[in-house]
UniProtKB/TrEMBL annotation:
GO cellular component: mitochondrion
Similarity comment text for this entry: Belongs to the ANT/ATPSC lysine N-methyltransferase family.
Domain of life: Eukaryota
Identification of the protein by name: Uncharacterized protein
Species assigned in the record: Rhodosorus marinus
Record-linked SUPFAM superfamilies: S-adenosyl-L-methionine-dependent methyltransferases
Keywords carried by this UniProt record: Membrane, Methyltransferase, S-adenosyl-L-methionine, Transferase, Transmembrane, Transmembrane helix
Transmembrane feature ranges: 26-45
Keyword flag Cell wall biogenesis/degradation: no
Record-linked PANTHER family: FI06469P, METHYLTRANSFERASE DOMAIN-CONTAINING PROTEIN
InterPro entries per record: FAM173A/B, SAM-dependent_MTases_sf
GO molecular function, one term: protein-lysine N-methyltransferase activity
UniProt GO BP: methylation; regulation of mitochondrial ATP synthesis coupled proton transport
């Protein structure tokens, strides 16, 4: 009886269907493993989760709802993707050194200095800022998973009272509320973000960029790939006082 059962099992294993399954089983296992890793990493690396519109009507001061043609165009307008690329330790170090130089020139009053990172990713720029300088840090990011991760790191490192992270569109953040503005953004965004700075800067503020410069703003200091700008150095910016020297 046992020989009969064994022969049947052996026959099933050597059937064309069994041979086909055995041949493709490693491929399917590998595909499942890679797919699972991809699902876990997707929220962190997907550029599509951090997109912004080329045609940013709010930044241009245009009410597209009042213009049907513009509204139609906006539906099909090309969208750029900003991939999540973490800042390196060297980039963070340079940015924090420029922050110290900028704060010394700003000569802020007794109020608490507020720093913001536009597109804060995993929060490392904000966390480095609050560790290195006497500031309150704020990070705004579209990717909810990255915001959650940033909050967890801030909690684990004991910085949650000084570092705040929110899911938000950077174009809707009022830059007038902050003294220090970090922007580790793509080159295609710099012209439009500069317009936003021109509109919203209302007091002495500093901007730190990484790799890509603001088109018209005059830089005060450079270090590695990081650049420091002071609003008081910009002749075309109104509403700020000009320091001596």
């Amino acid at each position: 009886m046992e020989d009969g059962v064994g022969a049947t099992a052996k026959k099933q294993e050597t059937s064309p269907e069994a041979r086909s399954w055995n041949r493709f089983k490693p491929v399917l296992i590998c595909a499942g493993f890679v797919g699972g890793i991809g699902v876990l990493l997707w929220p962190f690396v997907s550029p599509g989760l951090r997109r912004y519109d080329d045609l940013n009507t709010q930044a241009l001061g245009v009410n597209y709802r009042a213009c049907p043609l513009l509204k139609f165009k906006k539906m099909f307008y090309h969208r750029h993707a900003l991939p999540y690329i973490p800042a390196t330790d060297k980039q963070l170090s340079d940015a924090m050194e420029l922050t110290r130089l900028g704060l010394a020139r700003l000569k802020p009053s007794n109020r608490q200095i507020r720093a913001v990172d536009l597109g804060s990713g995993d929060g490392r720029v904000v966390l480095a800022a609050v560790r290195s300088n006497p500031v309150l840090g704020f990070g705004f990011e579209l990717n909810r998973w990255l915001v959650l991760y940033s909050k967890l790191v801030a909690w684990r490192t004991g910085l949650r009272t000084r570092a705040t992270f929110k899911t938000a569109d950077i174009w809707k953040v009022n830059l007038a509320d902050f003294d220090v503005v970090y922007m580790f953004l793509g080159s295609e965004m710099m012209k439009e973000i500069e317009r936003k700075l021109d509109r919203e800067v209302t007091r002495n503020q500093m901007v730190v960029t990484n790799r890509f410069d603001l088109p018209r703003w005059k830089p005060r200091e450079r270090m590695g790939l990081a650049t420091l700008y002071l609003s008081s150095d910009q002749d075309h910016v109104v509403g700020v006082s000009k320091p001596d020297g």
